[in-house]
Amino acid sequence: MKFSERLFQKVSDIWEKTHQHPFVVGMGKGDLPVESFIRYMKQDYVFLIDYSKLFAFGTVKARDIETMAAFAKLLHETLHGEMDLHRQYAERFGITNEQLEETKPTPINLAYTRYMLNVAQNGSLEELISALLPCMWSYWEIGKVLARDYQGASSHYLYGEWVTMYSSDEFGSLAEWLINLLDQLTEGKPEWELTILEEHFLTTSRFEYMFWDMVYQGGEWPV
Ligand SMILES: Cc1ncc(C[n+]2csc(CCO)c2C)c(N)n1
């Protein structure tokens, strides 16, 4: 069994729970309150500023030029592709780029990015990829499920662009590149090392769920 298949099995419960979360279902059905989506966009924007640094760490930890270049490309595409989606949405809601950047991360947002940045600084390349992968892979899964199971989700006036972006083959190929890289890097690794990687993957999959729940509920600091 490929290591990625083992990871997929390990997180099947939490990913299934994510597919059923009212925020995700609301984007599919198109009835998610717009205030929740705006809260998500703002929190996600500051999340992405930190997340993109993980790709910079990937470039530092890569062991060949091809992998270095691929991480550098992902860094560029996150800053200019994915974050553009957020800037365009913000513009539609009358939110400026400055307001987006000034968003204060909630406790869950901060805990999630700090967990990954800690792994990036202190762990191996394999650990880094295991920690950052649920973010990309689970979004691809969500995008595909929404596009497949909810009629009209890809053309919804608000959430359609989100669904189209994350269900696209272009986005899928980025996720697949990382999945294949992790499969290659983990070939022949001892069980104790694989267990550590599996734990990172499960932890950040749980954080993904908590991020959706946080933006749905509010998730602000107590005072
Ligand atoms: C909380 C949260 N989790 C995952 C993603 C998805 N995502 C973040 S970076 C990246 C790589 C391609 O730019 C992808 C797919 C998100 N936006 N927000």
UniProtKB/TrEMBL annotation:
Catalyzes an amino-pyrimidine hydrolysis reaction at the C5' of the pyrimidine moiety of thiamine compounds, a reaction that is part of a thiamine salvage pathway. Residues 9-217 form the Thiaminase-2/PQQC domain. Gene3D superfamilies: Heme oxygenase-like. It catalyses: thiamine + H2O = 5-(2-hydroxyethyl)-4-methylthiazole + 4-amino-5-hydroxymethyl-2-methylpyrimidine + H(+); 4-amino-5-aminomethyl-2-methylpyrimidine + H2O = 4-amino-5-hydroxymethyl-2-methylpyrimidine + NH4(+). Homotetramer. Pathway: Cofactor biosynthesis; thiamine diphosphate biosynthesis. GO terms for biological process: thiamine biosynthetic process; thiamine diphosphate biosynthetic process. Pfam families: TENA_THI-4 (PF03070). Its EC number is 3.5.99.2. CDD domains: TenA_C_BhTenA-like (cd19366). The gene is tenA. This is Aminopyrimidine aminohydrolase. The lineage of its organism: Bacteria, Bacillati, Bacillota, Bacilli, Bacillales.
